[in-house]
Amino acid sequence: MTATSTAPPRRGGKRWIEHWDPEDEVFWAEQGERTARRNLLYSVLAEHIGFSVWTMFSVLALFMGPEYGLTPADKFFLVAMATLVGAVVRVPYTFAVARFGGRNWTVISASLLLIPAGTLLVVMEPGTSYGTFLAVAALVGLGGGNFASSMTNINSFFPLRRKGWALGLNAGGGNIGVPVVQLVGLLVIGTAGDGQPRVLLAVYLPLIVIAATLAALRMDNLAPVRNDTGAAVEAARDPHTWIMSFLYIGTFGSFIGYSFAFGLVLQNQFGRTPLEAASLTFVGPLLGSLVRPVGGRLADLYGGARITLWNFLGMAAFTGLVVTASVQKSLPLYLAGFIPLFLLTGLGNGSTYKMIPGIYQAKAVAKGLTGEEAAAYGRRLSGASMGLIGAVGALGGLGINLAFRQSFLSYGNGTMACVSFLAFYAVCFGVTWAVYLRRPLVPAPAADPAAQQPAYAHV
């Protein structure tokens, strides 16, 4: 979504870096790497807190017993509201980095988290109206935007040869905010009891202040970074942006959707107490977060399309096991299906994100571009598409929670929701094969370069 140039200075202040050329190995060795790593560290911290706040209702729902007067469908809609807002704000958050500066926007976006956390501290008690909880759930969604701005910012700091590592670490460190807040919730329930949700909120309020303060003191803005609206328009018109958005719904959408819903399913379908549910809820998101870089590494070795294809097959298989367990009302079998399913969502997050730059690089080669010209085209289009893909993919979490809500309303359990997820993964498998792995039936003549189609198997 941004372009890096040697444009004249546009800001004042010591926190603005006017010259930034990470591709210059001398510059990178002398000062670039040290500065980039420092910004990565504090970006991960702020994004981590953002994910924790975004998924706060997945934990608070465990505290909301019968005295709150909410049905399972009501709770699923609360987490769906947070998911929706978190997905939508990712688009403006992506543009905000170039508009305000990466350091400045990290401070702003982290500070904004005080609004939902502080509001929850006030209203989190029996007797609060459902409409109030819905409004606060929408505010909580602000935490979902931090991922997009953080990834856009860090993408600008690192050279192409280091982007995979840096973005993987940034994304994984942020995603781990989900199981961490669930672990903190488990600790609160285990020590203070399930009637003390304000203790959880009291823990996060100072952490938000610390993240914003450290970002202000230790991060930098890159003056050469500009919004590239032309690339954004071109990416929006490219069918691959929307195809990858669809596939990212299946991977990241599943990860965030299941992270929100898992504890609610354990309570309402399997009768687990808040403490029992909390002791299991964090396991899947933790494993899914840790394994994300592995998915990217496997994609480096064997091709992102291939890993994504077989990943969707595995997701469908374990979802089938979850459906069987749901019908048989077997919690051990349910966990045996759901925990590996979480793992595969993490692997798929890594492999699908790795596909994006590879797709546009392949398109550049098919256009006849070579060398730095091809690399520049790939960087420009992949960077522009990532924000949109991330936003649309997060909407998958909304779909999962709405599907669970309807399933519980209609059948009293989540079985039919899981059946629909199985069908969706089957479609994702078919799309991945048809678009990125199926060989053309009639190869284009070698003498006609214009008719050549990009090869995506190794993206």
Tell me what you see in this structure.
Helix 15 packs parallel to helix 18. A two-stranded antiparallel ribbon has the order 1-4. Strands 2-3 form a two-stranded parallel ribbon. Helix content is 78%, strand content 2%. By secondary structure, it is mainly alpha-helical. It contains 20 helices and 4 strands. The protein has 2 domains: 227 residues, Up-down Bundle (Growth Hormone, Chain: A), CATH 1.20.1250.20; 220 residues, Up-down Bundle (Growth Hormone, Chain: A), CATH 1.20.1250.
Summary tags:
459 residues, globular, 20 helices, 4 strands
Count of the separate structural domains: 2
The unreliable regions are 441-451
The main β sheet shows up as:
2 strands, antiparallel
N- to C-terminal distance: 21 Å
SSE string, helix = H, strand = E? Answer: EEHHHHHHHHHHHEEHHHHHHHHH
CATH topology value of the largest domain = Growth Hormone, Chain: A
- Report mean pLDDT, rounded to a whole number: 88
Strand content: under 5%
Principal-axis shape equals globular
Task: Return the CATH architecture of the largest domain.
Answer: Up-down Bundle
Q: What is the CATH first-level class name of the largest domain? A: Mainly Alpha
Q: Give Rg in angstroms.
A: 22 Å
Structural class: mainly alpha
